Amino acid sequence: MIRVENLVKYYGKHPAVDDISFNVEKGEIVGFLGPNAAGKTTTMRILTGFLMPTSGDVWVAGYNMMKHSLEARQHVGYLPEAIPLYTDMTVRSYLDFFARLRGLDRRRTKARIEEVVDICHLEEYVDALIGRLSRGFRQRVGVAQAIIHKPEVLVLDEPTAGIDPIQVATTRELIKELGKECTVIISSHILPEVSMTCERVIIIDRGRIVAEDRIENLASMIRGSRRFRLEVEGPSAEIAERLRQTDGVERVSREDSRYIVECSVEQDPRGKIMETLVQGGWTLLSLESMEMSLEDIFLELTTEEGE
Amino acid sequence: MRNTATIAFKEFKSYLASPMGYIITGIFLVLTGFVFSISPATYFETSIRGFVEASSMLLLLLASVLTMRLFAEERKMGTAELLLTAPVRDSEVVVGKFLGSLGILVVMLVLTFYYPILLMWFGDPDMGPIATGYLGLFLLGCASLAVGLFASSLTSNQIVAAVVAGGILFALWSVGWAADLLPEGLGGVIGYLSLSYYFSDFTRGVIDTRAIVYYLSVMVLFLFLTTRSLENSRWS
To answer: Which domain CATH number covers A247?
Structure first.
């Protein structure tokens, strides 16, 4: 559905995107993950035809974006990072404008506005001026705009940036829902964001793809282990020693009364750890799973590259 | 074609939704109304010549202000990203926006129709120069709006857009004054390039096809340059 080949984009002498290639199959939800200034937005802008690449090729819905830009753009829905809106228009007239521009006739436009307003829960605000809406609602209007013409490909650039947690949750649900009908590509710099909605992740750093895999493989590929942080009351040296001997535990490190326990991904040793502690008669104060942060992943990936 | 109309209507409506359209129209009506009301005392004739001549330079200013937001605001707000990723040709966007602003100009001119109506009520004016006067203002308006649109496509700052547009328009207008001081050949060529050179014909009731071709050429040239400017922004 999306094919990108050897894409390069220079801003002056500085390469923003440096030779990246990837495919997105029909119906996939793919996350495009990277820190700020990694080239995510530039890639999104090229995918949607807003920018032309310095070199390389892009196909969207079977059309070459450079040669048949209008046909390709016809099949793309786009929500840019800044959620740009005409603040002097009402939600209805805004949606009407973009529906008409994307080739819907008057009757179909009217019907689709009703549908997307329903999907994005904007019923109460259809006739409100966009300038009066809060950030969360503006973001919904942006999504409504992107799907008004039932695009085959949906490009969302940082769709949950700057909105409150409850709305983030509803947006994720919405994206999953939309993913059933179209191919979605989401950019983000937040790992949980992508891991909750996407099936596959492409990680990009300084204009290059550093990793690309299904979400569950990625974590294990990066570090063949998972980590827990324990807080235990009792003699620390002895506890650390006993933890090390527990089945499935690979490494234990200590900081005051806290222990970081590493183990392989395949098994969950938490039950065994509990048993060990109970046998020793020590009190477990807390046990938490340590999520790997995006920074960790980047550190991991970039140092691996260097070695 | 349909896309052009969609964009033109949207722009026209957005002028009506913001104070800018009303302020510009108001200023135009007040100033030209004043000139119109004192011109019979200046020219001793029942004509709208005073209004047409005064409007011509005022039009350059108003066109700069009217068009300044058309692309600059889209760039600033980021909406350009949606407009230019819609399946619409760049030229359709440019012509649509141009027609939207032209719509406001036409409304402004139509609102001044009561000047000639007053003249007909109280006297017996020669309708020829009145018609050509309006034709001249319309053509000058087309050229000026196209220049303004081009300036707006160059920047994301509306003030910069207005100043650049005003600068280009004033330069194109005043270069005609220099023509008289230059030697015959050179002066003639420069005169032909000037926005003001052909305008006086219209106030006298003369329709010169060269004048019509000239203003329409300026309009087409700058609409073309605007389209290129948009295309260029995709490659930068």
So the answer is: 3.30.70.100
**What residues of chain B, 77 to 116, have a C-beta less than 8 Å from chain A?**
77-89
Identify whether residues A102 and A190 lie together within a single domain: yes
Say whether both A124 and A216 belong to one domain: yes
Residues from chain A that touch B82, judged by Cβ atoms under 8 A, are: 78, 80, 84, 98, 145
Portion of chain B with pLDDT greater than 90, in percent: 61
For B123, the domain range is 2-235
Give the span between the Cα atoms of A13 and B20, in whole angstroms. Answer: 41
CA distances from A218 to A164, A222, B215 (A): 28, 6, 64
A87:B77 CB<8 A: yes
Q: Which domain holds residue A247?
A: 224-291
What lies within 8 Å, CB to CB, of A201 at 6+ separation is A30, A31, A32, A33, A194, A195, A211, A212, A213, A214, A215, A218
B232 interface with A at CB cutoff 8 Å: no
CB contact residues (below 8 A), chain B span 18-77, against chain A: 18, 77
Q: Report the residue of A101, A105, A156 to disrupt the B interface, i.e. the one with the largest count of B CBs within 10 Å.
A: A101
- Residue-wise pLDDT for B67-92, tens only, equals 999 999 999 999 999 999 999 999 99
Closest CA to A202 of A29, A27, A5: A29
Q: What single DSSP character describes residue A266?
A: T
Instruction: Indicate the residue of B10, B14, B85 with minimum beta-carbon distance to A49.
Output: B85
Residue A307 in domain: no
CA distance B223 to B91: 8
Owner of token pair 């392989």: A264
State the pTM of this model. 0.84
Residue B156, C-beta contacts closer than 8 angstroms, at least 6 positions apart? B72, B75, B76
Strands in chain A per DSSP E: 2-11, 14-24, 29-33, 55-60, 63-64, 76-79, 153-157, 183-188, 200-205, 208-214, 225-233, 249-255, 258-264, 283-289
Q: Cβ A102–B85 below 8 Å, yes or no?
A: no
Location of structure tokens 């974006």: A65
Q: What is the ipTM of this complex?
A: 0.89
**Stretch B107-120: mean pLDDT:** 91
Q: Does A296 reside within a domain?
A: no
